[in-house]
Amino acid sequence: SYQNIKISTPKPGVGLITLNRPKALNALSSPLFVELNDALSKFDKDASIGAMVITGSERAFAAGADIKEMQSLTFSAAYTTDFIAPWSHLSTSITKPVLSAVNGYALGGGCELAMMADILYCSRTAVFGQPEIKLGTIPGAGGSQRLTAAIGKARAMELVLTGENFSGAQAGEWGLAAKVFETAEECVEGALKTAEKIATYSRVAVKAGKEVVNKSQDLGVREGVEFERRVFHALFGSRDQKIGMAAFAEKKKPEWSHE
Ligand code: CAA
After folding, report:
1. How far is the CA of 64 from the centre of ligand 1 (A)?
2. CA-to-CA distance for 32 and 28, rounded, in angstroms?
3. pTM for this entry
4. 245 CA to middle of ligand 1, Å?
5. Does ligand 1 lie within 6 Å of residue 113's CB atom?
């Protein structure tokens, strides 16, 4: 029943969300985000799903926030409605791993959405950028923070202040993308394969793995290592730790309980 996205489960344990506003190059309108957040929450709650992939089309992952929707927005309306705050749903409330498979344009909010994912894959010719400066504004959905964390201040500052684009190949060289593919098809297939692999592991351990890596973005190394150790300790209380280690000792394949 979605108008702006499509959802499917193309591989065991994998939920695929395809942004689908082709006429607007998948510009991220408010109605699109309502649907995206709904789909993410549904997959997150679905016990049969272990990981998710967000992708767009070969031409555009997403060409940014919807400029036509923002054009006449006032400060007071943006402030009182906390405009684009719902975009944080993916990074604050979704506990299962999310991969982004980026082909074509990932500009402004599109680049920001791609970077909210836990793992970013792209094709070599993908076009990333934070072009908001050209519109008389700045990134508003975490771009200045996540891009800087991923590729360092020197490059991020240059990109945010010039609005210049960068390629998927560069995203790989700079460490923003975990993998870079030759074609759009290979990129989506690669993301689905990785999601499928993650979905074969214990849901409890995967959730903990995502949580501890994400904590590294907010905590100093010492606090982060202490946090990691406490979560590591906690996993000795899971059934899956016993199942996983017993299976290793018995040279068998683990049958996870997800408990
Ligand atoms: N919002 C609304 N509509 C958009 C859009 C956007 N971000 N990007 C593209 N579209 C629309 C175009 O208006 C056009 O619609 P019409 O056919 O009705 O005119 C359609 O999509 C196709 O786009 P183009 O004709 O422009 O296609 P192109 O191939 O010539 O150019 C492009 C492609 C370089 C991506 C160009 O569309 C473009 O520059 N888009 C805007 C990119 C941008 O500035 N993004 C940042 C938005 S601000 C933001 O995201 C704020 C934030 O941080 C949250």
Report:
1. 7
2. 6
3. 0.97
4. 51
5. no
Closest CA to ligand 1's atom 30? 25
Same domain for 185 and 68: yes
Catalytic residues: 65, 109, 112, 132
With a 6 Å cutoff on the Cβ, whether 139 touches ligand 1 is yes
Do strands 14-19 and 5-11 pair parallel, antiparallel, or not at all (unpaired)?
Answer: antiparallel
Q: How far is the CA of 134 from the centre of ligand 1 (A)?
A: 12
Q: Identify the band that residue 238 occupies on the pLDDT scale cut at 50, 70 and 90.
A: very high
Write out pLDDT tens, residues 172-201: 999 999 999 999 999 999 999 999 999 999
pLDDT tens-digit map of 70-117: 999 999 999 999 999 999 999 999 999 999 999 999 999 999 999 999
Pocket test for ligand 1, best of 20, 21, 25, 132 (most atoms within 8 A of CB): 25
Instruction: Let me know if residue 256 belongs to a domain.
Output: no
**CB of 84 shorter than 6 A to ligand 1:** yes
In this structure, is residue 258 part of a structural domain? no
Beta bridge partners of 154: none
Say if residue 174 is exposed, middle or buried (CB neighbours under 10 Å; 0-12, 13-18, 19+): middle
Provide the 10 A C-beta neighbour count for residue 253.
Answer: 7
Q: What is the mean pLDDT of the chain?
A: 97
Q: What pLDDT does residue 152 have?
A: 97
- For residue 84, give the amino acid letter: I
Angstrom distance (rounded) from CA 108 to CA 111:
5
236 and 186 together in one domain:
no
Query: Where does the pLDDT of residue 4 fall: very low under 50, low under 70, confident under 90, or very high at 90 and above?
Result: very high
